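Side project, low priority. Logging it here so it doesn't get lost.
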Amino acid sequence: MPSIEKRGNTYRIMVSLGYNMEGKQIRKTTTFKPPRNVSENKAEKLATSFAYEFEKKCMGMTNFDENMRFSELVEWYFEQIAPHKLKERTLLTNIFLMNNYVLPYIGHLKLKDITTARIDEMLNHLHKRGKTSKYYIMKDPSLLEDGTRRPASRKAGVELNTIKRAARGGHIRKSTAEKIASAFGKKLNDLFVEEVREESEQGIESTSIARIRTATSAIFNTALKKDIIWKNPVVHATSPRGKQKERDFLDADQCKQLLGYLDELQNPNARVGLATLIYTGMRSGELCGLHWKDVDLEKGTIFVRYTLYRADGQYKLSTPKTKSSLRVIAIPAELKAILKEHKAWQEKRSEELGSKWKDRGAVVTGMEGEYMSGGYLNITLKKLLKKHDLPDIHVHDLRHANASLLINAGVPVKFISEHLGHSNTKTTEDIYAHVYNSTAEKVASAISDALDGGDIKSAFIRIVRQNMV
């Protein structure tokens, strides 16, 4: 039976799984935190129940074999393995990929029936026809009448707009439906009905296919190491090619235009945020997680060491995606002036609001000091682009625009790679191959002009200058 030890407000639970080849005891441990405002007697009962469920899962792990279903392997992986290996944001992304793309296709299959051919079939299906998703609809939307929606939102930890969508009979994700059902003290199937919908209007881009493949392979690799399966069926799968979406980029003139149009925005944080992205090439999460303590306006540098993301209805800070993403970015005089002015405005704003100001120390914030989301910046950007008939790009594409400007200005790839926080120059070259190809054509043109009687050095410099900001 499991061992249960009370430690303050939590319970430490330990399960013994016998002994290994060296005679050492194999133990699995976890922590249970009972809900608030329950009696000690009730908390002990809940802890005991949780402990026995934990023991079942642990014992089940020792009996895993190729006859288990992939969905069972995924559940075990995300509960027992992934939380210790992955950052929370990566974990949430991989759960999303499994739930929306992989499980609807192979989740019901036994591991022994999942071959490389099956994986090929799944990847090709996703590439050509998009995802097959499971959504949930409330059986009785009247449970979420106007007066109950806000309390339900708080109790479930779900956005109010999502609660409203559920009340209208709209589709919601399984994880969200489970939270709502739990808030009402019900099981998922008591309140919701499952609906499978295939989104076949367009396939998935090659980059997304690669992410799905990587996440799936990691799960099979874990099963391989645990001797649950004898080979990873993803290793020799063939990824479909050629469905990479053509992206629009802002050129130098369009970037200048956009910087001018930012003055039309009423929200100063949006103005400063978008300007900073254009000048620095930062990721939007890095910008939203940027704090004044990491900005040196005298030296003109920004230290990138945090990224902001949202999970369970809360904003959270994490270190950037790779070690190379921890970097110092030099900022031009124009951006220094913008940031100095914004800092003064923010200090004045905090004085006006007094205790209402939520001091996070962030550079770009909401109007009361709270963290700003990259999603808000994206919506604001798209509205501005549409108004002025500029290419419809995503906020992340401002990073690509910054990189393209540097490449066309003749900046060496090593410096661009460090500036963007890439792990190596190959990543930079692969992502911006089309820009390098375009630049190479201009260099060839310069050589041609020079050999026709011009000066090769002046011709090359002229072409580089034409592409500088």
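Brief comment: The two ends are 69 Å apart (CA to CA).
Revisit when time allows.
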